[in-house]
UniProtKB/TrEMBL annotation:
<comment type="similarity">
    <text>Belongs to the NapC/NirT/NrfH family.</text>
</comment>
<keyword id="KW-0479">Metal-binding</keyword>
<keyword id="KW-0249">Electron transport</keyword>
<dbReference type="InterPro" id="IPR005126">
    <property type="entry name" value="NapC/NirT_cyt_c_N"/>
</dbReference>
<dbReference type="Pfam" id="PF03264">
    <property type="entry name" value="Cytochrom_NNT"/>
</dbReference>
<keyword id="KW-1133">Transmembrane helix</keyword>
<feature type="transmembrane region" description="Helical">
    <location>
        <begin position="32"/>
        <end position="52"/>
    </location>
</feature>
<protein>
    <submittedName>
        <fullName>Cytochrome c-type protein NapC</fullName>
    </submittedName>
</protein>
<keyword id="KW-0813">Transport</keyword>
<dbReference type="InterPro" id="IPR038266">
    <property type="entry name" value="NapC/NirT_cytc_sf"/>
</dbReference>
<keyword id="KW-0812">Transmembrane</keyword>
<keyword id="KW-0472">Membrane</keyword>
<keyword id="KW-1003">Cell membrane</keyword>
<dbReference type="InterPro" id="IPR036280">
    <property type="entry name" value="Multihaem_cyt_sf"/>
</dbReference>
<dbReference type="InterPro" id="IPR051174">
    <property type="entry name" value="Cytochrome_c-type_ET"/>
</dbReference>
<keyword id="KW-0408">Iron</keyword>
<feature type="domain" description="NapC/NirT cytochrome c N-terminal">
    <location>
        <begin position="29"/>
        <end position="199"/>
    </location>
</feature>
Amino acid sequence: MQDTSTSAAVAAAQPGRLKRLWRWFFSPTARYAWGLIAIVAFAGGVLFWGGFNWAMEMTNNEQFCISCHEMKENVYLEYRNTVHYSNRTGVRASCPDCHVPKEWSHKVVRKIQASNEVLHKILGTIGTPEKFNAHRIDLAKSVWRGMKTTDSRECRNCHKFDHMEYAVQEPRASKLHQTAFAQGKTCIDCHQGIAHKLPPKAQEGYRDMLEHIDEVGPVQRMIDFLQDADVAKAKAAR
C-alpha cells in the first residue's frame, strides 16, 4: 500500500510532456540552448533557400541570357526577326521559355549543365562570329537532341498537342500535325530553325543526331535520367 502511494506521488510530481519538451527546448548544451540552435538553423535554412531561389531566378531571364556577347551578337539577333519575338498577339517566348525547363528539378539540372557553358565562355570557344558558326551545327544538334528526347517539353509549355483545334489551322498544317502526332513525332522534328538560323546541312545534321541519339557517355546518360528523357521513345519515333 505504501509502495503504491509512493509511485502515485512520484508520478504526480513529474511534469507533463509539453512541460518536459519546453524545458528540453531551452535547456543548455555546452554553450547554447537547443531551442536557440534550432531557431538559428531554421533561419539559416530559410535564408539559404531564399538566396538559392533568388539566384535561380536572376539567371533565368532574357537579360541575363544575352549578357554575354556570344549570345547577344549571334542567336539573339536572329531570334529578334522571328515570330517568337514579335507577332500579332504580342505573346513573346523569351530565351528561358524555350531553353530552361519549368519543373524545378529539371531546371536545377539545366542550371548545372550551364556550368559547362561558363567554362567555354572563359575558354573563348565561340568568342567570335567565325568560331560560333564553326560550332553552330554541334550546338544545334545538342539542343535538338534535348528537345527530341523530352518530347519538346519546353515547346509544349505553350503549344499543347491535345489543345490544338485542327479545324481552324491551315489545311496543310492541320494535316501535317495530325500525321506527325499519330507517328509519335514531336515539335522539333519539323520546327528546327523556328527561332534561330539553321546551320549549313541542317537536315543531314538532324538525321545524324537521330541515328546516334543513344550513343552518349555516362554523364549525358545521367543528365537524360535526371531530365526524364525518353531516349528509347525518341529513337523509335525517327
